[in-house]
Write a structure and sequence with these properties.
single chain; two-stranded antiparallel ribbon; 57% helix; 168 residues; elongated; mainly alpha; 8 helices
Length: 168
């Protein structure tokens, strides 16, 4: 089983949104800059997350995205499922046809592992991750790094538009 970048980036972006969006909408440009994920990829992920009812777009000045649910209501497994990522350690995708039309010798082992992983990720909410000291430290560092880049660019160019800085 391998979780692709789609699932990993979705969880990372949602955690960033939960951290920075507690009192305001957060733009995809901001998330892209802090997490080094392209804006176009985030647009694809957030379209899925919006359809799943996890985020909502806010238009106008100060616009961006906000969580639709509280951080404690959003599990890591829900995020992964929202972007159509599968948590499955079987070779057959859980269809029991790993050896022709029959289950292989280790099918039940891998099915059990998939269930354990799914249950584990279902039990972890964004709120629980936000409480972790390491997550808070990393999020603050990322924010400071982006602010330093913005300041350097402003010093070089006089003024700079946000879209020019975070263009992917």
């Amino acid at each position: 089983m391998r979780l692709t970048t789609r699932g990993r980036y979705a969880v990372t972006a949602m955690l960033d949104l939960a951290f920075h969006g507690q009192d305001r909408a957060v733009t995809l440009n901001e998330i892209a800059a802090r997490q080094t994920i392209s804006v176009s990829y985030l647009e694809q992920l957030f379209a899925c997350l919006r359809r799943a009812g996890m985020v909502q777009g806010v238009r106008g000045p100060g616009g961006g995205y906000q969580l639709c649910l509280t951080a404690s209501e959003v599990s890591v497994a829900d995020i992964i499922a929202a972007v159509d990522e599968q948590i499955d350690a079987t070779r057959c995708g859980g269809k029991s046809n790993c050896q022709g039309d029959q289950a292989c010798l280790t099918h039940d082992l891998w099915t059990g592992l998939s269930t354990q992983i799914r249950d584990y990720l279902k039990d972890i909410s964004l709120a629980e991750l936000l409480e972790k000291q390491h997550v808070q430290e990393v999020a603050k560092r990322q924010h400071q790094n982006v602010q330093q880049i913005i300041q350097i660019q402003r010093n070089k160019a006089g003024t700079i538009r946000e879209n020019d800085l975070f263009r992917s």
